[in-house]
Design a protein that fits this description.
Layout lengths: L1 H9 L4 E3 L2 E3 L6 E5 L6 E6 L3 H20 L2 H17 L1 H12 L3 H21 L6 E4 L6 E8 L3 E4 L7 H13 L3 E4 L6 H12 L7 E3 L5 H10 L5 E5 L2 H12 L4 E5 L4 E5 L5 H13 L9 E7 H16 L19 H16 L3 E4 L14 E4 L16 E7 L2 H9 L6 E5 L3 H10 L4 E4 L18 E2 L12 E8 L1
Parallel strand pairs: 7-8, 7-10, 8-9, 10-11, 12-13, 12-17, 13-16, 15-16, 17-18
Antiparallel strand pairs: 1-2, 3-4, 5-6, 6-20, 11-19, 14-15
The structure holds nicotinamide-adenine-dinucleotide.
C-alpha cells in the first residue's frame, strides 16, 4: 500500500504544456480509477479546446528550431529518455497495472517493449536519408530530401498506456516533429509520467505537450481545423478512426491509423500442438485479451482440435485472476464496467447460438471489472464474437477440415491487422502467409510486436506503419529539388 501511495502522490497529474505542468485553462479535473477495485486512484487535469490551442501555439513556435536541431541531439534526448524509463521500470510497471489492470509481469514487459521505440528511433534519427540521381534525359539532376511533416497530434488508446504513446512520440521526435499527445481518458497517468521523463531528458519546452481530457473531440477538433497542425496519428477503434479520417479530409491532413483487429489463429493438422497451445496462450491471453493483436478466432484442424482444446483449457483454467499488483496474478480485470458488459454479451450470444463452454463463461461476483478466462468450442459461424473484437480473455474455437477452408474463414472479415498460424510444412508456411490478408503474419509464434518491425494493418485495420525503418517515414515529407 505504501508503494502505491508513494507512487501516486509523486506523479505529475496536470497537463504538460511548455515543458512544465499546468492545471489547464479551467482548473477542471477528472478521476482515474483502478479497474481492480473501481476505486479512484487520483485525479488529472481535464484539457479544453483552449489548452489544445495553447499546445499548438507552443508546438508551432518551436517546430522550426526543433527540426533544425541536429539529428544527433534529438537522438540523444530520445536515448536519455529510454535510459530514464528503464531506470524506473518498477514505477512505470506499477502505474500501468494500477490504471489499466494488467499484471505487474505484463506491465514490466510493456516497459521493455514501449521504451524500445525510444531507443530504436534514437538510432533511426541519424539515418534519415535522401537520394541524388542524374535525370535520364541527361538534362539535370534529381535531389530528393526529407523534412519533418510538422506539428503532430497523437491520439492513443488505454490498452498499452506506454507503448501506444512511444510508438508515435519516438519516430515523431526523431524526425524533427513537435507532438501533442491526447492519451486515453482511462489511462492518462503513464503518459504524464513520460512527460516528466522527457522534460528531465532535456527536450525543449513546447516540443511535446500532453493533454488528458474527458472530451477528446474538444481537443482534436480545433487542432485538426487549424492549418498549423500537419498530421494526425491515431491508435484506437475503427469507428473513431473513420471519424478522424473524415475530419482530416477537410484540410487533407496526413494521417496514420492503427485500428481494430480480428486476428485469426490457425492450427493446421501438421502443427506442433504443444507449441500452438503456448502460442495461443500468448496471442489470446496477453494483456488479458485486450490487445488489437489478440487472437480473436481460433481455427483448429478437426483432427487435432480435441487435443488442442483440452490442453488450452487446462492452461487457461490454471491462470490466476486477481488485482494485477498482487504477486502471482496472471490475468487482471478488464478496463471498465462497459468493457465487461461487452465481453459478457459476446459470450452469451455465442452460447445462445450453440457454442460449448469448456471453462469460464461469465464475470465473477465482487468488486472490480473481472471476467473469468473462458474457452468456447464449436463456435457457430453466426456468433457475433467471430466478427467483432472480443477484447477480453475469451478463446473462441472453430473446427475446419481443409487449408482452403481455414484461409477463407480467416480472411472473411473487414479487418486485416495480424494473422497467426502453426504448421511444420515450409511450403504451407510460405503459401498461407502469402494468402492471409493482413498487414502482419505470425508463423509458429503467438507474439509478433517488435520495435524493429513495421507494425500495421490493411483493410479496416487502418494504414501506416509503426516501428521498423518504415516508422519514421510516417513523420517525414519528401521534397524533390530539380538541379540544372
Ligand atoms: P477508442 O477508439 O474508443 O479510443 C482511442 C482514443 O481515441 C482515446 O484516446 C479516446 O479518447 C479517443 N477518442 C474517442 N473518441 C474520439 C473522437 N470523437 N475524437 C477524437 N478522439 C477520440 O479505442 P479504445 O477503446 O481506447 O482502444 C481499443 C481499440 O484500439 C480497439 O479497437 C483496438 O483494436 C485498438 N487498438 C489498435 C492498435 C493497433 O495498433 N492497430 C493498438 C491498440 C489498440
Amino acid at each position: 500500500m505504501t508503494a502505491v501511495h508513494d507512487l501516486i502522490s509523486s506523479l505529475p497529474t496536470d497537463l504538460w504544456l511548455g515543458g512544465k505542468q499546468t492545471p489547464g485553462s479551467t482548473g477542471a479535473r477528472f478521476a482515474v480509477l483502478n479497474p481492480a477495485t473501481g476505486d479512484q486512484l487520483t485525479t488529472v487535469a481535464d484539457a479544453t479546446s483552449q489548452d489544445a490551442l495553447t499546445a499548438l501555439d507552443l508546438a508551432d513556435s518551436v517546430q522550426s528550431s526543433w527540426a533544425a536541431t541536429p539529428a544527433r541531439e534529438r537522438a540523444e534526448i530520445l536515448r536519455r529518455a529510454f535510459d530514464s524509463v528503464n531506470s524506473r521500470v518498477e514505477d512505470f510497471a506499477l502505474l500501468m497495472t494500477l490504471e489499466m489492470g494488467k499484471s505487474l509481469q505484463e506491465s514490466r514487459g510493456e516497459v521493455a517493449y514501449g521504451s524500445e521505440f525510444l531507443r530504436w528511433f534514437s538510432e533511426e534519427a541519424v539515418r534519415i536519408g535522401g537520394r541524388f540521381t542524374q535525370a535520364p534525359a541527361g538534362n539535370g539532376r534529381i535531389l530528393v530530401t526529407k523534412k519533418p511533416v510538422g506539428p503532430v497530434l497523437a491520439i492513443t488508446p488505454w490498452n498499452f498506456p506506454l507503448a501506444m504513446g512511444t510508438r508515435k512520440i519516438g519516430p515523431a521526435l526523431a524526425a524533427g516533429c513537435t507532438v501533442i499527445v491526447k492519451p486515453a481518458e482511462d489511462t492518462p497517468l503513464t503518459m504524464l509520467l513520460l512527460g516528466q521523463i522527457f522534460a528531465d531528458a532535456g527536450l525543449p519546452a513546447g516540443v511535446l505537450s500532453i493533454l488528458p481530457t474527458l472530451n477528446a473531440a474538444a481537443v482534436s477538433g480545433p487542432l485538426m481545423a487549424d492549418p498549423r497542425l500537419r498530421k494526425v496519428t491515431f491508435t484506437g477503434s475503427t469507428g473513431v478512426g473513420k471519424l478522424l479520417v473524415r475530419n482530416a479530409a477537410d484540410r487533407l491532413l496526413r494521417t496514420s491509423m492503427e485500428l481494430g483487429g480480428n486476428a485469426p489463429f490457425i492450427v493446421f493438422d501438421d502443427a506442433d500442438v504443444d507449441a500452438a497451445v503456448d502460442g495461443a496462450m500468448l496471442a489470446k491471453m496477453r494483456n488479458g485479451g485486450e490487445a488489437c493483436t489478440a487472437a480473436n478466432r481460433l481455427y483448429v484442424a478437426n483432427s487435432v482440435r480435441e487435443e488442442f482444446t483440452s490442453k488450452l483449457t487446462a492452461r487457461i483454467e490454471a491462470l490466476t485472476v486477481g488485482a494485477g499488483d498482487i504477486g502471482g496474478t496472471d490475468i487482471g480485470p478488464l478496463i471498465n464496467a462497459k468493457q465487461r458488459t461487452t465481453v459478457t454479451a459476446l459470450v452469451d450470444d455465442a452460447v445462445a447460438k450453440g457454442a460449448t463452454v469448456r471453462t469460464g463463461g461469465g464475470a465473477p461476483h465482487g468488486a472490480g471489472f473481472f471476467f473469468t478466462p473462458t474457452v468456447l468450442d464449436d463456435v457457430p459461424a453466426d456468433a457475433n464474437l467471430l466478427r467483432e473484437e472480443i477484447f477480453g480473455p475469451v478463446a473462441a474455437i472453430v473446427g475446419f477440415d481443409t487449408e482452403a477452408e481455414a484461409v477463407a474463414a480467416a480472411n472473411d472479415t473487414q479487418y486485416g491487422l495480424v494473422s497467426y498460424f502453426y504448421t511444420r510444412d515450409l511450403d504451407r508456411a510460405m503459401r498461407v502467409s502469402a494468402a492471409l490478408d493482413s498487414g502482419m503474419v505470425g508463423v509458429n509464434r503467438g507474439a509478433i510486436s517488435d520495435a524493429a518491425a513495421p507494425f500495421g494493418g490493411v483493410k479496416e485495420s487502418g494504414f501506416g506503419r509503426e516501428g521498423g525503418t518504415e516508422g519514421i517515414e510516417e513523420y517525414l515529407e519528401t521534397k524533390y529539388v530539380a538541379l540544372q
